[in-house]
Specification:
Length: 82
């Protein structure tokens, strides 16, 4: 697992209900299937943008996979640091 994926899971987990296990997030394939509600997911997105100093509003959809999301963020972070 990449360092970026680790941080994404950590941030998403911080917005999840207390009974959600890390493995549930790690095993999720698409964003809409994450074990958190849409309001919490928006909070996680805000935290991700703030943590990495990027903006990705509108670039992810509920059907975006975690792999696609990670790749998109990786590209945005690389562009920011270029």
């Amino acid at each position: 697992m990449t360092e970026l994926r680790e941080k994404l899971i950590e941030i998403i987990l911080s917005f999840a209900p207390p009974d959600v296990k890390r493995s549930q997030i790690e095993e999720t394939k698409v964003l809409k299937d994450l074990p958190i509600d849409s309001i919490a997911l928006l909070g996680a997105f805000d935290e991700i943008e703030e943590h990495f100093g990027i903006k990705f509003a509108g670039a992810a959809t509920p059907d975006t996979t975690l792999d696609e999301f990670e790749a998109m963020l990786s590209k945005l972070i690389a562009q920011k640091n270029a």
